[in-house]
Amino acid sequence: IILKCYSRFGEVQAVQHCDIGHDYFKSKQSSPSLNNAGGPRNWYFSDCPEYLLRSVATQATRCAFCSISVDQKGNWAAIGRVRTRMPKVPELPEVETVRQGLEPAMAGARLIAIEQRRLDLRFPFPERFTERLTGRRVEGLRRRAKYLIADLDGAELLVMHLGMSGSFRIEKPGRLRCAPVLGAGQKNSAHDHVAFDLSTGARIVYNDPRRFGFMQLIPRPEFAAHPLFRNIGMEPLGGELDGATLARLFAGRKAPLKSVLLDQRLIAGLGNIYVCEALHRAGLSPRRPAASLARKDGGPNERATRLARVIREVLEEAVAAGGSSLRDHRQTDGALGYFQHSFRVYGREHAPCDRCGGHVRRITQSGRATFYCGGCQR
Fold first, then answer.
1. For residue range 114-157, what is the model confidence (pLDDT) as tens digits?
2. Active-site residue, from 49, 91, 93, 286
């Protein structure tokens, strides 16, 4: 748990964290200028107090960046839908798009200098971060779930996570750097936190306005057992995901299908957007029990085979389209992804279904918005 400095708010009595790192604190002094938007008295959100919303039914203050709430006793609990301008976390296709953009520039290049402009992002940078990276050659760049992993020629791996608003851009030699144009491909350079100077003359810059991304150095032998990766499930891209695999993973599970698909311990990297889209294409209700994809003998039924095929198709199409540009996602060249123009249900509440003419519905499952058609998804 990272404790930040809240001295400007007076004496801090307590700090509470939701399970993805957003933190609140309680101060002895109340400040009208730092009103917590109706939450319990003297509780403030560390970065932006206006993001706090109050749940009248539970008398709880909730984090507007996720579906976690804190009651007046400081207990965290999942709550229902949060209708805010919620930033979208990059999902697997967005991260894979970034990997494909960075790999040609980074693979085979040596890191000749690293500029680190902050001590921390979501978490503190590793000790001697720039020193441990300088002079290392990047042998390859891969992805595991939503993590980018740079294989270095030393004993360590560089692990990078985009968080909610992180992005990379490539500055090539001989090309003048343009002034940032917000919303038109580049990010505000005030939020450039790390820059990697490569032996090829190119520069890789990491930008993250909300600073929920992070970078870690992990010893190569410890990678599989590291807390970030030891409980991550199989990759959905590639030949491993098929109907038989889904049947094996889902057998005996009575939880709703969509909730089980989002379980990162089973399948790595599947996110809310693409699960909604895959379930619609497969004609499967997000409410149906996950176990309904397996026969009594444990083998796959037609639904499991169809869903496995559709998941791969949706992800591959999204990667080819450069991901979905929701709020903050940019490709490494600054271009916008455009898969969001192919959404059939996600974000289209009350819109007509393209397949059956019914209307897209929105419900909440496990604190996440689910979009589906009640007419053709069974």
1. 999 999 999 999 999 999 999 999 999 999 999 999 999 999 99
2. 91
CA 36/CA 70 separation, integer angstroms:
13
- Decide the pairing of beta strands 167-171 and 192-198: unpaired
The answer to whether 90 is a known catalytic residue is yes
> Is 88 annotated as catalytic?
no
Is 235 a known active-site residue? no
| SS3 (DSSP) at 106 | helix
Edge-to-edge strands, sheet with 68-70: 53-55, 60-62, 68-70, 76-78
Amino acid at 332: T
- Residue among 62, 99, 146, 330 flagged as catalytic: 146
Residue 152's CB is within 10 A of a number of other CB atoms, namely: 21
Q: Is 91 a catalytic residue?
A: yes
Give the global pTM. 0.72
Spatial neighbors of 349 by CB under 8 A, at least 6 apart, are: 360, 361, 362, 371
Catalytic residue, from 40, 49, 87, 90: name it: 90
pLDDT in tens, 197-232: 999 999 999 999 999 999 999 999 999 999 999 999
